[in-house]
Amino acid sequence: GAPHNKLVVVMSSWGDHPKAYSSGSGQNFNGTQGYVSTGTSGRIQQLEPGYQQEVLLYLGTSGIITTTIQTWGQLYQQSRRTKGRKMQDVTVDKIGYQTDNGAYYCFCSDQNCSATLIHKLQELKSNQIPMGYLSFQGSGASSSDGDAPWCVTEWGVDGALGPGYPVPMPTFSRALDGVPLQLYAPYFCPSSPYFQETGWSFVTSDPSLPDCEDFDFRNVHPRDAFEFYTWFFQKGIDVGMTSFEPDFLNQNYNCVPYFITRVGAVEQWQHGMADAALMHNVTIQWCYATASDVMNAVNLPAVTNFRVSFDYC
Asked: What is the pTM of this model?
């Protein structure tokens, strides 16, 4: 639009810990109302010596909100070590097929969904609309015996497919005739053998936290994140995975006490995941992510995109 002769200012985190930065509740530290009440989140319980929370104030010169946001974003990207560089990703470059709610196949517990998807791939190819990749997720794509939505007890690539998917993942992948897979694991059910029967340390959610009553799960501890995801991603790569989607990034942070009370803990977990993906040449799509996740992703070449589409059923 045209300039409206008003100042446009963008305020954001500038340092290395965007997840610890809070825009505030509209109140200052002494309880009075304030136009600006940004700073380190009040949930943080400990700070390392020398910790600093940097804030950027960017004043646009165009008087146009969209242009100012765009220029701020370019400035932020160029200020990072990666310069905003991203890996090439089939999920960005190609049209894929989504088995989550949009295709409904994730709920066909009494059907042969493996055969259905292979038939769909062949049908699209015959219509000259080749499937660029297959996002394989939903009920039956992994086993789940927990209460948190879609929590993974055991990944489908380890043989834990539901009855609707009778074809083992290696055989299914070969039947896709080279079409790459995007695989899904938002977090893990408390009974997951990945933590019960291995040496991986983990963090635990707290369902008593606000808006977390449905989210009882575990995830890998930040100090083990790189090694865990290096091991975990190899399982997917062995059956044709080129992209990985973790979901509920919002709950993965806000429902985990270890993350919300410590500066840098969740960034360490995210970097461990993304660095393992980069090493394996696997890209990552984050789902249900927040603005601070998007800002941290500027530092992570493997995190190429964010899923924001609404579920359909």
From this structure: 0.92
